[in-house]
Amino acid sequence: MPGPTLDVATIDRLVSDLLALKAALVAADEKAVDEVVDEVVEPVLIDTASASSRFGLAPDSVRWLCREKKIGTRIGGRWMVNVAELRKHVSRKAEQDTVL
């Protein structure tokens, strides 16, 4: 029994519908989409030197955040930083600084 067949017009319509759905989701909650992208696209854990360079923080600050704010985990005696958690922390800090 052969499966259903789709013609090019049907596939184009489905792709168009998916793109419209994606645009609606992004418009509805851009931050939630960013967090999902962080988990899917970016590596979940990076070393402190990479996190320091990427987010413009001192390496000691990154290690402190790992220890005190629980945004990282120790693997083989070295801190590995959760990118999504560090991004959330930096965003919250930036929002607090703009409010003050």
Brief write-up:
This protein is of the alpha+beta class. It folds into two domains: 1-41; 43-100, Multidrug-efflux Transporter Regulator, Chain: A, Domain 2 (Orthogonal Bundle). It contains five helices and three strands.
Walk me through the topology.
Blueprint: H1 8-28, H2 30-40, E1 45-47, H3 48-55, H4 59-68, E2 72-75, E3 78-82, H5 83-99
Antiparallel strand pairs: 1-3, 2-3
Helix pairs in contact: 1-2, 3-4
Describe the fold and architecture.
- This protein has two domains: 1-41; 43-100, Multidrug-efflux Transporter Regulator, Chain: A, Domain 2 (Orthogonal Bundle).
- It has helices spanning 8-28, 30-40, 48-55, 59-68, 83-99; strands at residues 45-47, 72-75, 78-82.
- A hairpin with a 2-residue loop joins strand 2 (72-75) and strand 3 (78-82).
- The radius of gyration is 20 Å and the shape is elongated.
- The protein is α+β, with helices and mostly antiparallel strands.
- Helices cover 67% and strands 12% of the residues.
